Amino acid sequence: MHYDVAIIGAGAMGSAAAYHLSKTGKKILVLDQFEPPHTYGSSHGQSRIIREAYFESPLYVPLVQQAYVLWQELEQASGKQLFLKTGGLMLGHKDSKVFSGAEHSAIKWNVWYEVIGSKEISKRFPAFRPDYNTVALYEKNAGLLFPEACITAHLSLASGSNTGFRFNEKVTEVSSLADGTISINTTKGNYTAGKLIVSNGAWMTTLFPSLQMPLTVTRQPLCWFDFEAGNPEWFSPANFPIYIWELSRHNVFYGFPALENKLKIAIHHGGIESNPDTVDREVHREEIDHLASIISTHFNVKVTYSHSSVCMYTNTATEDFIIDRHPANNNIIIASPCSGHGFKFSSAIGKLLCEMACEAPLSFDLSAFSLKTQTS
Ligand SMILES: Cc1cc2nc3c(=O)[nH]c(=O)nc-3n(C[C@H](O)[C@H](O)[C@H](O)COP(=O)(O)OP(=O)(O)OC[C@H]3O[C@@H](n4cnc5c(N)ncnc54)[C@H](O)[C@@H]3O)c2cc1C
Predict the structure, then answer these.
(1) pLDDT tens, residue by residue, 20-55
(2) pTM of the shown model
(3) Whose CA is closest to atom 44 on ligand 1?
(4) Which of 224, 341, 349 to mutate to test the pocket of ligand 1 (most atoms within 8 A of CB)?
(5) What distance in Å separates the CA atoms of residue 370 and residue 168, rounded to the nearest whole number?
(6) Does 3.30.70.3340 match the CATH number of domain 69-145+216-315?
């Protein structure tokens, strides 16, 4: 069967691309080895942070601003709640990347923010227990997205007579025919497509070993805790913003207000290098204890372990993204490696992937995310 556009991977990026492409009238094929949303890739676990004063680089601010608009449109189109606004705190010492990078981006793009010192943090957000030299950038528009609901919304709105979904079907090989058409072999059949979007996340290197993409997949545990003592109200979305807290350069953790009365926390980066097919999916006692001790040191609460999950980051060396065309076939579009911070952008990246597949002008300059930037 021939399609105008095929998409490999219907997670965050692929589902968003499918949604935008479905509006163009093109005949599309959406393939996934599992049935999204699922818990085996990089897009599960109840919540994802979205924030505007982007500490990583000001480059991302216009992209996240586009993403906010598109999430809002998707909420309206789907009739589902996808976003919860909580405000956000970027905490650290004044020279930390998380704090100073966020301030730099906010100044560059004129994003509203406040800088608040340790005493003020404790007064306004009594759950937090910062040491005397911690400062925070507070931004109003930050909050969280519900990733499973976002993927479901994109996929359900993409369904229609022009869209073929093939789930529980793994792509085993991709090759280019003489005219640039792409041949796709799966565990269940063969398809051809005029354009191919490869958004297969942590499995990215497996389909194109010859590209030698410099990617490292890491195992990232997440834990949820129940309240044992303290004031759970201090941790409710009304009183507790999403946060990212840098203790030192490679010691960063982040978390969310309590949802369903459980507090979720995780470490940013530093996970063990893993293979997506064999990654250890059990969260171990010492990992749980480490996260529990972070909570007891930095928050005014006592907690007990509830449950956990393992997710994967697909990292480039600079922690930037790769969104580009395959160097040997322009019709193949590569989009996924998002270094552990891509979900918030997926609404906008999906639109860009659609524009690339349709050879339309791009709504964001992607030159900083080229394959060459990461391989040279
Ligand atoms: C623990 C954790 C916390 C994070 N927190 C945040 C956050 O707070 N904010 C934020 O913005 N980002 C965050 N991120 C990053 C963000 O979630 C990811 O960048 C994003 O979800 C990746 O989406 P994706 O579409 O590339 O991958 P996925 O959503 O994993 O999709 C890839 C899909 O490809 C499919 N696939 C793979 N190989 C094949 C094949 N051969 N054939 C068919 N299908 C295939 C997989 O089954 C999967 O469904 C976090 C990531 C993790 C792991």
Answers:
(1) 999 999 999 999 999 999 999 999 999 999 999 999
(2) 0.98
(3) 32
(4) 341
(5) 30
(6) no
